[in-house]
């Protein structure tokens, strides 16, 4: 499967709440690292992430990948993503994100999915209280600082 077809199948599966098809795009030991929910390892957990976790508080997903670049082992694509929130404070509003998807590939399957996402606009769209936003951002900051590649950046 070429990069464009892989990305279209990826987005379509989320939009159609088809966790099985989504998980089939990953290797058996594949891991999806979600910017909000954390890591989901293996096809069963990845399928559950789409069918349950994503749709628990949201619906009407829209996901588009733009300008993919791949060397056959790593795939990058800029994305735009949105959903209609079912959270009470969001009043049915649409939360919108943009980001970059980073996928490690093996034999045409996804071994690892990571993303760098601009989540701030979504927090405004969802009408999150400033205290809630601060708590989420603090958690993201702690996770970033815990990564091995950030060690050099933490010294004065």
How would you describe the overall organization of this protein?
With 156 residues, the protein is of the alpha+beta class. 35% of the residues lie in helices and 39% in strands. It contains five helices and six strands. Strands 2-1-6-5-4-3 form a six-stranded mixed β-sheet. A hairpin with a 3-residue loop joins β3 and β4. The longest helix has 17 residues. The protein is globular. The N and C termini lie far apart (46 Å).
> What is the helix/strand order?
HHEEHEEEEHH
Could you name the ranges where pLDDT drops below 50 across 5 or more consecutive residues? none
Going across the biggest sheet, name each strand in turn: 2-1-6-5-4-3
Rg value = 16 Å
Share of helix among residues? 25-40%
Q: Would you report the number of β strands?
A: 6
Mean pLDDT: 94
Termini distance?
Answer: 46 Å
> What characteristic shape results from the CA principal axes?
globular
List the helices and strands and how they pair.
Elements: H1 3-15, H2 19-23, E1 26-34, E2 38-41, H3 43-56, E3 58-70, E4 74-85, E5 94-106, E6 109-118, H4 120-125, H5 130-146
Parallel strand pairs: 1-6
Antiparallel strand pairs: 1-2, 3-4, 4-5, 5-6
Summary keywords:
156 residues; 35% helix; globular; alpha+beta; 5 helices; six-stranded mixed beta sheet
Short synopsis of the structure:
The protein has 156 residues and is of the alpha+beta class. Helix content is 35%, strand content 39%.
């Amino acid at each position: 499967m070429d990069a464009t077809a892989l990305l279209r199948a990826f987005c379509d599966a989320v939009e159609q709440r088809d966790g099985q098809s989504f998980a089939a795009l990953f290797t058996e030991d594949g891991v999806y690292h979600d910017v909000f929910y954390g890591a989901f390892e293996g096809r069963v957990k990845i399928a559950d992430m789409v069918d349950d976790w994503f749709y628990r508080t949201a619906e009407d997903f829209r996901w588009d990948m733009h300008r993919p670049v791949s060397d056959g082992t790593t795939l990058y694509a800029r994305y735009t993503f949105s959903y209609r929130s079912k959270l009470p404070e969001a009043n049915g509003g649409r939360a919108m994100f943009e980001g970059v998807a980073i996928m490690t590939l093996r034999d045409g399957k996804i071994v690892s999915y990571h993303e760098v996402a601009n989540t701030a606009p979504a927090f405004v769209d969802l009408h999150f209280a400033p205290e809630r936003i601060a708590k989420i951002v603090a958690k993201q900051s702690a996770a970033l600082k815990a990564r091995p590649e950030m060690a050099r950046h933490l010294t004065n």
